[in-house]
Design a protein that fits this description.
The structure is a single chain. The chain is of the alpha+beta class and 87 residues long. It is built from 3 helices and 5 strands, in the order ββαββαβα.
Length: 87
Amino acid sequence: MTTESAAVPGTEVADDPASIERDYPAWHVWQSQAGRWWATRLGHVRPPADRDRDHPEFATTLDADTAAELRQALESQRLESQLRRSG
């Protein structure tokens, strides 16, 4: 099954857990029996010490109604991590 990419309108991306994990290798992705999409960070990643004030978006687990929504949340986490590293 495929869905339209929210990041690049007009392009299609596979919406199975394995394809999402390929795109976001720092996360384990699965779909619950109820159809909800989940992702959990892999490894021992800790939130920044100042996360409540400066980085409220850091999450160790994400959930969404659809694969496209989960991809959006994962992309947001990736961008947040890049912002923290750059400074």
